[in-house]
């Protein structure tokens, strides 16, 4: 029996270990975290994260070969393979502030492993880390080894929230990077043996450490780049009368390009895209590659531009002011089928509207009021620190109310902003919503999910990203 321990019970550690436990019933899998509330939630009927299919997997394995514990030292000491899935936030101060990854939590985990280990260990990077992190971790472990052999592997995750369980059960690829030494290759073989219990061998890719670390950053950068590319086209579509959906469909039919990640929207979010690109920018700058750094920086700048452009559309369309007006916000999570709000475009859109003194009524089926208030009042990058190390939540923003359904959010509102593509928002009774709104009634669709013609027949003035503009909007400036 292989004993597997994962340090970190978040969006990556929890689901990954649950699926490993499901598919490797002869292995013991323990997820450890210093957060008592988080571990308590993992051991309860109300899991700390929402992910379709996760609850079923956890309930099948929990108490059999899957365990959640706060006794970090004991389980780390007893394990053969240790996955490290801790936060790697963007630094907010010091060298590389605003771009470089803060490896404080990773270093603490490495020192803990070194302190408590009494037998040889395979230590697996599961967090998104900068290239050459393994080398730093290796140095900490080697200099504190007390004769114990540690092998460092990079095994980046390629999960998409909302489909994480399916991504784990049927991955495109599993990437394992290790040292090109006999010991390193042996460690790779051990970890490969875990995944091979359900993943076809031709999908398990092995590389050197640095290639594995860089591949994760590169994959996220390429995906974000596609979103920024189609979003840049959406602005041009609005200016010329083209339809970005039609353009994206035509472009996506080219087999060299493909259709995925070509949906225009209010912007990308999530825990990885911006953070990883900033990290990539910093690494390029440190390696004397300013042109490469500037290229990737532009992906983020277009994303920020898209969010600002959306806010400007809202304000300029409504007589150049939203002061004192009620704006309904439908959706706060960064994408559907997750409660994750990290770097969600909704934060910047809401802050932009609040800056013009709007009153916001927010509804999201998976995000609670405390999280929304924290996100709107928190400083940039603070979200990525563990909850107990984040600044205490300040007083709730008075101009923000969080409500229990879409109809309450839109009641007496001047406008509706759709910021997450939840399926239920496509099925709403928009006639009912229109009847209960202030007139003229506006819908600003940041995800292109509504039936534009149907809403216009009801009486709405509708704005959709990258679509031919409503006559009303043609008379309004694109920038407030």
UniProtKB/TrEMBL annotation:
The active site is at 272 (nucleophile). GO terms for molecular function: NAD binding; UDP-glucose 6-dehydrogenase activity. Residues 328-452 form the UDP-glucose/GDP-mannose dehydrogenase C-terminal domain. InterPro entries: 6-PGluconate_DH-like_C_sf, NAD(P)-bd_dom_sf, UDP-Glc/GDP-Man, UDP-Glc/GDP-Man_DH_C, UDP-Glc/GDP-Man_DH_C_sf, UDP-Glc/GDP-Man_DH_dimer, UDP-Glc/GDP-Man_DH_N, UDPglc_DH_euk. It catalyses: UDP-alpha-D-glucose + 2 NAD(+) + H2O = UDP-alpha-D-glucuronate + 2 NADH + 3 H(+). PANTHER family: UDP-GLUCOSE 6-DEHYDROGENASE (PTHR11374:SF3), UDP-GLUCOSE DEHYDROGENASE/UDP-MANNAC DEHYDROGENASE (PTHR11374). This is UDP-glucose 6-dehydrogenase. It comes from Nelumbo nucifera (Sacred lotus).
């Amino acid at each position: 029996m292989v004993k597997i321990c994962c340090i970190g019970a978040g969006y990556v550690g929890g689901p990954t270990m649950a699926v490993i436990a499901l598919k490797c019933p002869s292995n013991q899998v323990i997820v450890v975290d210093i957060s008592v509330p988080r571990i308590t939630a993992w051991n309860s009927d109300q899991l700390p994260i929402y992910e379709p299919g996760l609850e079923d997997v956890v309930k099948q394995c929990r108490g059999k070969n899957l365990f959640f514990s706060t006794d970090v030292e004991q389980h780390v000491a007893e394990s053969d393979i240790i996955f490290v899935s801790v936060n790697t936030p963007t630094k907010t101060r010091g060298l590389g502030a605003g771009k470089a990854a803060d490896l404080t939590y990773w270093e603490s985990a490495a020192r803990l492993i070194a302190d408590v280990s009494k037998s040889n260990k395979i230590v697996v990077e599961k967090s998104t880390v900068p290239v050459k992190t393994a080398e730093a971790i290796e140095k900490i472990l080697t200099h504190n080894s007390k004769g114990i052999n540690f092998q460092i592997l990079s095994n980046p995750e390629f999960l998409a929230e909302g489909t994480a369980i399916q991504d784990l059960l049927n991955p495109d690829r599993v990437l394992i990077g290790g040292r090109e030494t006999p010991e390193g290759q042996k460690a790779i073989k051990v970890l490969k043996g875990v995944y091979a219990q359900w993943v076809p061998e031709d999908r398990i890719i092995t590389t050197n450490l640095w290639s594995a670390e860089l591949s994760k950053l590169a994959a996220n950068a390429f995906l974000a780049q596609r979103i920024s590319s189609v979003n840049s086209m959406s602005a041009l579509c609005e200016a010329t009368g083209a339809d970005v959906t039609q353009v994206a469909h035509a472009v996506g039919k080219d087999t060299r390009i493909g259709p995925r990640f070509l949906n225009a929207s209010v912007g990308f979010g999530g825990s990885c895209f911006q953070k990883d690109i900033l990290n990539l920018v910093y690494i390029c700058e440190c390696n004397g590659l300013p042109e490469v750094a500037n290229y990737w920086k532009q992906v983020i700048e277009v994303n920020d531009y898209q969010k600002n452009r959306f806010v400007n559309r809202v304000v300029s369309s409504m007589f150049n002011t939203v002061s004192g007006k009620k704006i309904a916000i439908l959706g706060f999570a960064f994408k559907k089928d997750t409660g994750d709000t990290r770097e969600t475009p909704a934060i910047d859109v809401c802050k932009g509207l609040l800056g013009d003194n709007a009153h916001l009524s927010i509804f999201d089926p998976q995000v609670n009021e405390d999280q929304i208030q924290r996100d709107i009042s928190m400083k940039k990058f603070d979200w990525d620190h563990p909850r107990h190390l984040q600044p205490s939540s300040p007083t709730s923003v008075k101009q923000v109310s969080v409500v229990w359904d879409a109809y309450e959010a839109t009641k007496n509102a001047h406008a509706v902003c759709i910021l997450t593509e939840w399926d239920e928002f496509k099925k709403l009774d928009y006639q009912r919503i229109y009847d209960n709104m202030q007139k003229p009634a506006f819908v600003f669709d940041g995800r292109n999910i509504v039936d534009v013609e149907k809403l216009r027949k009801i009486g709405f003035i509708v704005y959709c990203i990258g679509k031919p503009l409503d006559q009303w909007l043609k008379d309004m400036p694109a920038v407030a």
